[in-house]
Amino acid sequence: MTTCSSRMRFALFQTAKLLQTHSDVDLIYSDEDKFTEEGFADPMLKPDWSPDFFLACNYLCHFITIRRELVLRIGGFCSQFDGSQDYDLLLRAIERTDRIHHIPRVLYHWRRSASSSSSGLRQKPGQFEAGRRAVDEHLRRKGIRGHVAIDWRTHTYWVKRELAEMKKISIIIPAADCIELLARCIESITTRTSYPNYEIVVVGNDRRSEEARAYFGRSEHQLLYYEGPFNYSAINNFAVEQTESPWLLFLNNHIEAIEPDWLAYMAEHVQRPEVGAVGARLLNPDDTIEHAGVVLGGNGIAQPAFRGFPAEHPGVCRQLQITRNYSAVSGACLLMRRKVFQEVGGFDEESLPDAFADVDFCLKMGRAGYLIVYTPFAKLYHYESTSRRCNVEAPEAEVIRQRWAGILERDPYYNPNLSRERADFSLGT
Description:
Blueprint: E1 6-7, H1 11-21, E2 27-36, E3 39-44, H2 51-56, E4 64-66, H3 68-74, H4 85-94, E5 100-111, H5 125-141, E6 146-151, E7 156-161, E8 169-175, H6 179-191, E9 198-204, H7 210-217, E10 222-225, H8 232-241, E11 247-251, E12 255-257, H9 262-270, E13 275-283, E14 289-291, E15 294-296, E16 302-304, E17 324-326, E18 333-337, H10 338-344, H11 357-367, E19 371-382, H12 395-403, H13 405-409
Parallel strand pairs: 2-5, 8-9, 8-11, 9-10, 13-19
Antiparallel strand pairs: 1-5, 2-3, 2-4, 6-7, 11-18, 12-19, 13-14, 13-18, 15-16, 17-19
Helix pairs in contact: 4-5
C-alpha cells in the first residue's frame, strides 16, 4: 500500500528479502520520513508491532505490504471510512493475523505539499473522525466495551475501556525509610483514588524504629513485618503470599497520587487477558518526567523513557502522551494480576534483591507472551531523588546482562536507529 506522493528506495527489494526468510508473514511495514524541496525531514522511526500504540494512531502508515489473500478475506477498503480507509483496513487485518513484521529502515518518503495530510494534521479535518469510527468499530467487532475519543492536543485516539468488574486490588508498599513520605503516599491514595475496591498493605522491615511503631500503631491499614535486611524482591513476594486479592499493585513508598482516576486508568488495562503489567506516568516534583516506560539497552541495561521532559510534552511522535507498549515499566507503580505473578514466579529475590528487579520481572512476563502497557493517563509524583537509583555497576547489573543479552541488544519497542544513550526517541549517532 502506498500513495502517488511517495518515493521508494529499495522498498520492494527489502520486502522481497524479508519474505525469503519469513515466508509466512501477512503484513510488513517500514519506517518513513517526509521530503520537500529542501530535502528529507521528520523521520518516523517506529517500534516493532505495538498493538496499544496502533489503537492510539496509525503508526504503521507507510510503507505497507499485505498478503493479497488476507485483503480479499477481509473485504478490501471500505468507503465509509474515507480519509482513514487504510487505518480501517489495517484494523480489520490485525483481527485476523498476528504475523506482522517491521523493517526498521526508512523505505518511504512522503512528499509534503500544501494539500497533503503529511504537511499538517488539520489539513483533512474529516480523517480523524473517520479514524475514530474505525477504532470504535474495531472494538465492537472484538467485543470490547469502551469509548474512543479524539485527543485534539496530540491528534491521537484515546481508547477508554469499560471495567467489566471492580476487582479487589492489594496495594503493596514496602516501607524502606522515611515515614513522612510513606504517610504522604498513603494519604494521597485514600483521598485521591476513585477506584473503590482496594486495600493498602504496608511491609516494614525495621521493628526498632520508634517513628515507624508510632505511625503504624495508629494506622488502619494492614501492616506486615518482613524479618531481615531490606530486599525489595523478597518483601514483595512475601506480601503477595499474605494477601488474597486477584489484582496486585506494587507501589513505592515515595509515590504521591495526583488525580483520582489514576488507579482506574491502570485497571482498565490489567483486566485484559493479554496484558501482563501496567505502568504509569511518574513525575518529579518539578513536573518533569521521572518514568514513562523503560527503554532497554540504555547504559548497557535500561533507562527510563523521556526522563527530564516536561510532564505535558508530547514526546517524539506523540509517544509520551499516548498508551503504548514497552518491554518494561517501573516497579515503583506496577499493576498486575495475581495469576500472572504466580505464572512467572514472582520477583527474583536471590539474584535481584533490589536493582533491576522490575526490569527482570517485566521481561519474564514478555517471555511468557504478555504485553506490558504504559498509560500516560495515570499520573503520580515519584520522589525518587530521596529513593534508590539503579546502579549499572551493581552486581545485579551483570545478572541482567547475562540473562537478557538478546533483548538488551534489540528492544522491540524502541527503534534500533534511535539514541540508546538518551532513551528519548531522538536519532542515534
